[in-house]
Each structure stands twice: as structure tokens, then as C-alpha cells.
Design brief:
9% strand; 2 domains; alpha+beta; binds FE2/S2 (inorganic) cluster; 137 residues; Glutaredoxin; 4 strands; four-stranded mixed beta sheet
Length: 137
């Protein structure tokens, strides 16, 4: 099991290594929270606020736990006719999230249907998936 201590010991405790350590911790744990920032602050000898200030400059470093997301798209006949496969491809290519294909939900007239963490979206298009998923990412 990888721990935060394992990660920080890969870096000399010099200020120039704070950013690479932050990036690695965010990549491994998904975000840099209070606990991680506290350990980094002690190790690098800086205030915790400096750790968060540094982290906040980079989009790739998350400082809050990111929501887990389950995206499902109907792959039954009526939704497929309305281009659900191109929606799946758009999500997987743009967001690098694997979409779970599901069978008809009985809302065929409103298709294509997408379900995100249990919430149903109707008449989804390749462009509307972006605004919908921005709520979750
Ligand atoms: S075919 Fe998709 S909801 Fe029925």
C-alpha cells in the first residue's frame, strides 16, 4: 500500500520539490486534502497555506475529493437510432471515462437516455453531454 510518507520520501525536502510532490500525491490519492497538506507542510517546512496556495495554481492538482461518477447510456434500439453510440464515444474520448451501456429504460421517446449517478437525462446530444458532465467533474 502506498502511503503519503512513501511518496514524500522520494523527494528531498527542498522547496523546489513541493510542486512535484503535490502532483504525485494528487495523482495517487486523487486529491491533496488537509491531512496530506499537513504532512507536506511539515516535511517541506512551510505553512499549510503555502501548500494549498501552490496547489491552487495547477488544475491537475485537486484539493478536494473528486466525486466518483457512474455514467450509463442506453444502447437499446430507439436510443441507438438517435445516436447513443456517438454520445458514448464522445464521453469516452473527451472525458476519458468508461461509459456503462445499459438496456432500455422505457423512455424511448425521450432518447437518447443517459444516467449519471442515478439521475436520468433525456434527449442527450454530443454537445449537451459536456454541460451535463461539467456538473459532476
Ligand atoms: S431504447 Fe433507450 S430508453 Fe428505450
Amino acid at each position: 500500500m502506498i502511503t503519503i510518507q512513501n511518496i514524500i520520501l522520494e523527494f528531498e525536502p527542498e522547496m523546489e520539490n513541493l510542486l512535484p510532490a503535490l502532483k504525485k500525491i494528487s495523482a495517487v490519492f486523487g486529491y491533496v486534502g488537509e491531512k496530506e497538506a499537513n504532512v507536506l507542510a511539515d516535511y517541506f517546512g512551510v505553512p499549510e497555506s503555502k501548500v494549498f496556495e501552490t496547489a491552487s495554481f495547477y488544475d491537475e492538482i485537486k484539493t478536494e475529493k473528486q466525486p466518483e461518477i457512474l455514467i450509463q447510456v442506453c444502447n437499446s434500439a430507439n436510443c441507438t437510432v438517435n445516436d447513443s453510440f456517438s454520445i458514448i464515444k464522445e464521453i469516452e474520448n473527451s472525458f476519458k471515462i468508461k461509459v456503462q451501456e445499459i438496456s432500455c429504460l422505457g423512455r424511448c421517446a425521450e432518447g437518447p437516455i443517459m444516467v449519471v449517478n442515478g439521475k436520468i437525462y433525456e434527449k442527450v446530444t454530443k454537445s449537451s453531454v459536456h454541460s451535463i458532465l461539467e456538473e459532476y467533474l
